[in-house]
Fold this sequence. Notes:
Layout: E1 12-18, E2 23-30, E3 33-37, H1 43-51, E4 58-63, H2 69-72, H3 75-86, E5 92-95, H4 96-102, E6 124-126, E7 131-134, E8 137-143, E9 152-158, E10 161-167, E11 170-171, E12 174-175, H5 185-198, E13 204-207, E14 213-214, H6 215-221, H7 223-230
Parallel strand pairs: 3-4, 4-5, 5-6, 10-13
Antiparallel strand pairs: 1-2, 2-3, 7-8, 8-9, 9-10, 11-12, 13-14
Helix pairs in contact: 1-3, 5-7
Amino acid sequence: xxxxxxxxxxxxxxxxxxxxxxxxxxxxxxxxxxxxxxxxxxxxxxxxxxxxxxxxxxxxxxxxxxxxxxxxxxxxxxxxxxxxxxxxxxxxxxxxxxxxxxxxxxxxxxxxxxxxxxxxxxxxxxxxxxxxxxxxxxxxxxxxxxxxxxxxxxxxxxxxxxxxxxxxxxxxxxxxxxxxxxxxxxxxxxxxxxxxxxxxxxxxxxxxxxxxxxxxxxxxxxxxxxxxxxxxx
Length: 233
């Protein structure tokens, strides 16, 4: 897959931190459409926060970057609240490789951390090269297995810059853990090598936990990316 780097559209971004594992939930608004990424918990509150703003808007989809419980626990609540308010249940999107895992608290590791979280069955399964369009923005799907088999990164080029919602694949100076169910350290290093090659250095990377970073900073200082480069990944 070759990323389309043509700047198109713009979005407003809100972030909420939820669930016991302090997961970043991202809410994007472009024109009159809203997309929610990785609602970890407190789905009704996430929905209301996402929709709070000037002018009418509608939620067009909820997306999970991967199937761990701390990234799917609020999905049902967001969808229920949207349906209660509008009469329409928005679609839920997740990679095909993680769709089943997300629906089971034992498989998605939430039970391992002392709570149970699960997602509904998806309405759309994501694959490499898919595009998620809302407002005047296009999110491009990159498959980045390793942290889980079905991890994805969502990349978009906008008039305000380039952004990547990287889930738990990449963190500032670090990378996602691979000791949970379905983790694969070699696959993760390959995925990091791919991001290093394909994401422009100026890309703002928004991870599933903690602060944002840029690919330029990670190319310069992230030891896991350095490892990927040494291995020729």
